[in-house]
Amino acid sequence: MSLAHPLDRPAWSALTGRWSDLTLAHGGARRLAPEFGLFAAAPDAGAASLADLGALVRAHGEVGLMESEAWPAAPGTTATNAVCWQMVAQSPPPASDPGFEIVPLTDADAPQMLELATLTKPGPFFSRTHELAEFIGVKVGGRLVAMAGERMRTAGFSEVSAVCTHPDHRGRGYAAALMSRVAERILARGETPFLHTYADNAGAIALYERLGFAFRREIILTLLAPA
User: Fold this and answer.
1) Which residues of 170-184 are buried (b: 16+ CB within 10 A; e: fewer)?
2) Cβ atoms of 171 and 82 closer than 8 Å
3) Strand (E) or helix (H) holding 100
4) pLDDT at position 93, please?
């Protein structure tokens, strides 16, 4: 399967590139180790690749494919599809002083990060997802109430991800400020920020557009679970 752009098959680009040392393999298929995430990919959607993906699912649990089209269920799995928007920020507005403290998050914050992500469901987040890149957050009374960080990294691009705010602390600009800071950090490295969101999440899309992200293409998230 040809790859005209590293974001056309973002999971494949990450798993065969900057995530390669965090992957499990079966034949030509690759998946992120389960403690880091569920993303998987294979060279193509042919029978051999699907068989390899099925073996990874049976051995290690559910995986998520991110492709330009829906893939069929691999042997021994069931498939669920969702349409996502892939958005890219070529020149987002510079981050301004938010009026509250943004702090770097460390391994000591991992339990609170997982708790917040489990509550708010910003996307797949597991016990070691926070190790994929640097995360930042906002704390109130010592408790983590909002965070954001990076996830997929491909040649020249890095994904803004895990953007979430505790329901009791929404409406205070935390998510926008954190996203702006993460995007600024990515740009400072000479890379381009991108993200994924469900196509029907109008509120999130409106926020991302205000922060300088623009639609690039549709991506289909296919979840393969053990049958």
Assistant:
1) eebebbbbbbbebbe
2) no
3) none
4) 84
Using 50, 70 and 90 to split pLDDT, how confident is the model at 1? low
**Locus of tokens 């098959």:** 9
Neighbour tally for 31: CB within 10 Å: 32
Lookup: tokens for 214: 């623009």
* Residue bearing tokens 């770097």: 104
Q: Which of 136, 187, 134 is nearest to 157 (CA)?
A: 187
- Residues 60, 55: Cα–Cα separation, whole Å: 8
What the block records as the tokens of 141 is: 């009374």
Distance CA 142, CA 220 (A): 38
State the DSSP H helix or E strand holding residue 104, giving kind and residue range, or none if neither.
strand 103-104
Q: Where are the domains of the chain?
A: 10-85, 87-217
pTM (whole model) above 0.90: yes
Check: CB of residue 85 under 8 Å from CB of residue 194: no
Q: What dotted CATH number matches 87-217?
A: 3.40.630.30
> Which tokens is 99 given?
């009026």
Write the pLDDT tens digit of every residue in 24-69: 999 999 999 999 999 999 999 999 999 999 999 999 999 999 999 9
Phi-psi region of 194 (alpha: psi -120 to 50; beta: other; left: phi over 0): beta
